[in-house]
Amino acid sequence: MSEKQPDQGPCLHEFVRCVVRQYLDDMGETPPDNLHSLIMGESERALVQTVLEHTDGNQSRAAEILGITRTTLRNRIRRYGLE
Length: 83
Known about the structure:
Layout: E1 4-5, E2 9-10, H1 12-27, H2 35-54, H3 59-66, H4 70-79
Antiparallel strand pairs: 1-2
Helix pairs in contact: 2-3, 3-4
């Protein structure tokens, strides 16, 4: 049974579990390499990009929402080519 937050649908961890399960199913017999690194990088990139869009590019506000410093945010923006 999946946990639910009030009026917000399934919890994020359940969504992630479903996506990872689907990814592994799609891989079939081919074992994925560096799955943790792949998922963490893709997740962080999507998170940073989405929060920047939400704040209309306001890096100070985005860093605050993400709970990181602006310097760290700028490093992530460069790392993921979100400039």
